[in-house]
Amino acid sequence: MTNEQILTHSLPDIESFSFEKHPKRFLNKKLIANTLYMIPLAIAVGFLFYNFSEFPWLGWSGLGLWAFILLFSLFVNYKEYFVRGYTLREHDITYRKGWIFHHQITVPFNRIQHTEINHGPIDRLFNLCELEIYTAGGSSSDLSISGLDPKDAQNLKSFVAGKTSTHV
Amino acid sequence: MFDLSTPQRQSKKVIALYAFKSLRGFIFFFVFAAFGMRGFLEGLAFTGLVLFVAATSLIGPVIQYLFFKFHIEQDEFILNKGWLFKEKKAVPLERIQSVNLEQNLLQRILKVYSVQIETAGSKEKELEIKALDESAALSLKQALLDISNQREEQEKTEVTEPEKKTVNPTSNEVSSTLLKLSFLDLFKVGMTQNHLRSGGVAIGLVVGSYFKFQDVIKQFFGDYLDGWEWENLMSFASLGMLFSFLLIFLVFSIVVSLITVFSNYYGFKAVVYQSHLELSMGLIKRQEIRVPIEKIQSLEFRTNPLRQWLGYSTAYIYQAQSDANKASKVSIPACKKEHIKILQETAFKDSVVDATIDIPCNGFSYMRLASYIMLATLIPTLVPLAYFGDYNWVVPMLIPAVVIVFWSYMYGSNSGIVTDKGFIGFKKGWLFKSFSISPVFKAQAVEKWDSIFIRRREEMHVKFHTASGSNGLRYFKKDAVNHLLNYINNTVIKSNRNWM
Predict the structure, then answer these.
(1) Is residue B116 helix, strand or coil?
(2) Buried b (16+ CB within 10 A) or exposed e, B273-290
(3) Residues B221 and B284 placed together within one structural domain of the fold
(4) Residues B226 and B304 in one domain
């Protein structure tokens, strides 16, 4: 049995090398979606200006807060893109994500129950899809790798499926 | 004998059960109708309504009884129910995880059992057959489990371990009693419950049902209640009154604790068989739970200062579970050290009882987090107080903050991970201690995480996922975490044992 060690603390460079990044479209999608999510809040700020015109500072501080939240979330999403990634080894799959809170989870193939590919409407617009990897029991150890190229996702899925069937 | 190859109905007594249930639903309706529509629907209309409701609540159960049928066909357990809305459920026998018998008060009076069939990994609620006579319930349970056990045995012998063929399915008869609780044991368990919680739950129940029956109560006692206000009560309040309230609350909580313990665990008995654990308990609602040993994912032992003094801890058995089915946590109260050992050996073939922590958490990091949270809440409240020169509240607010910070430090310094004999154990807590343990090969995934706040301190958090849920602790050295996760991961990859 071979399962060469990649993720040791002594080899941080290799660790960052070996993780496969998501396509650049995924970053675009995240940034655009993030901006879209902020629109309702912008309307609320406009409401502040309109309804409390005798207190202009209220509107301005609302606008400032809005701009801060927007820039901050865009910044976090931007940073997050570069630390998100997955890597396959002979016997397991590892996925990591998050910048402020960085998670790295490893699921051995012999514990995977089934896999699923999801396309959301926004995902389809950017030609992306999501690969869900399910383990048994509760949902705590399920992996969902979002923002994959459909072709890559299909390959990953069949690779993982092939591995699980040989183990069980 | 109960013949399962042809569709069978439940015991006829189930009609009474169904009728009782539907009548109970209508009682509220009647109460509200009687008070709300008094003088409005007097006479014929009201009588007609009552007759209609009575008729439906009598005919409904009969129909329900007639159309509720179940049997075993080939490898599936099939359940048909419903008249207008037909429902058919088919469960492959090998997917059946456990079969439990239960009796509530009414079922005890009628001398019938409810049979609950739990399946692995289904998001649905398990199947329930409401009423079967004892012999029928037992033979159904036996039939379902025999077939699913046999299948598992066969698979095991065929696929992985051919030398195990000598295992005799009838050796299930060999049993030993793990634990039997006497009246005194139960009393001790009741006295050492978390009284604060049971008191709180009881008060919540009282308040909740007050709001539910608010209207009815007001109808009867409205005159007295009108003069009663919280403000009046407050103006009478004094220190002596506060103490007597606390005393009443304490006594009340202890009584509630005792009652809950006795009603849940009366006649508790745990018996170990070859392939499963059998637990039976309950005063009013009698429960018989069967836990297949292979399905046990982790064991947890919790204790508190009082129980520690008596040498007791409560054991929790976690089985592979689906999201909806949280009931797969079974508890055994009043476990002594020897019981803990036997339980671990039964479930996992080995035991670690007095384990020492191999990978400790950093207590200071726990303390730091608690201090940040305390500061973030204290400053906005203390600054205005200081501004207005109101210093009386400073000390009462500081004391709990200091206690919480100190508690977090102690929690962190007493927590850590145990890796011993192929187990992974999480030791947690100070005073209120818990120790949960599972074999490493039962892991499904390992996770580590950190945040930008602790990244430069080279600390990481750990999460260990099994089919029964996740467990984790925080603030470990990064190197130790990497090492541990690799060890777990490699063990899982190498293992070809059945893990659920």
Answers:
(1) strand
(2) bebbbbbebbeeebbbbb
(3) no
(4) no
pLDDT one-digit tens code per residue, B33-71? 666 555 555 666 777 777 777 777 778 888 888 888 888
- In chain B, how many domains are there? 4
CB spacing of A106 vs B447 below 8 angstroms: yes
Q: Which domain holds residue B397?
A: 363-412
In a domain, residue B311? The reply is yes
pLDDT of A66 over the 50 cut? yes
Whether B178 is in a domain gets the answer: no
Task: Specify if B6 maps to a domain.
Answer: no
Which amino acid belongs to residue A149? D
- Do A92 and B493 make contact, defined as CB atoms within 8 angstroms? yes
Same domain, B33 and B157: yes
Contact between chains at B444 and A135 (C-beta distance less than 8 A) = yes
When scoring A7, A75, A141 by the number of chain B Cβ atoms within 10 A, the one with the most, hence best to mutate, is A141
Strand order across the beta sheet in which B269-273 lies: B127-133, B112-119, B96-103, B286-292, B276-281, B269-273, B175-180
Interface of A with B in 52-91 (CB under 8 A): 91
What is the average per-residue pLDDT within A84-101?
Answer: 89
Which pLDDT does position B212 carry in this prediction?
A: 67
pLDDT at residue number B84: 78
Return the residue in A8, A107, A145 with the most chain B beta carbons within 10 A, the one to mutate for interface testing.
A107
Helix (H, G, I), strand (E, B), or coil: what is residue B227? Answer: coil
Residue-level pLDDT at B364:
93
Secondary structure letter of residue B8 according to DSSP: B
Q: Within this chain, do residues B343 and B465 fall inside the same structural domain, yes or no?
A: yes
Q: Strand runs (DSSP E) across B303-433, as ranges?
A: 313-319, 329-335, 359-360, 416-420, 423-428
pLDDT tens-place string over residues B68-95: 888 888 777 888 888 777 777 777 777 7
Residue A121: the pLDDT is 84
Distances (CA, A) of B356 to B415, B420, B425, B435: 10, 9, 10, 11
User: Which residue type does B154 have?
Assistant: Q
Mean pLDDT of B177-189: 85
Do B315 and B443 belong to one domain? yes
> Is residue A25 less than 8 Å (CB to CB) from chain B?
no
pLDDT, tens only, A139-149: 676 888 988 99
pLDDT at residue B402 is higher than 90: yes
Residue B331, strand partner residues: B316
Mean pLDDT for chain B?
Answer: 79
The pLDDT value recorded for residue B434 is 92
The answer to whether residues B218 and B288 belong to one domain is no
Contact present, B492 and B440 (Cβ < 8 Å) = yes
pLDDT of amino acid B414: 93
Instruction: Search chain B and give the residue with CA nearest A111.
Output: B444
- State the CB neighbour count (10 A cutoff) for residue B39: 5
Domain A85-167 has CATH 2.30.29: yes
Whether B104 maps to a domain, the answer reads: no
Q: Look at residue B464 and tell me whether its pLDDT is greater than 70.
A: yes
Cα dihedral B44, B47, B52, B54 in deg (nearest 10): -170
| Joined tokens for residue B184 | 């005194």
Same domain? B425 vs B289: yes
Domain borders along chain A are 26-80, 85-167
pLDDT tens digit string along B270-320? 888 888 888 888 887 788 888 888 888 889 999 988 888 888 888 998 887
Statement to judge: residues B298 and B440 lie in one domain: yes
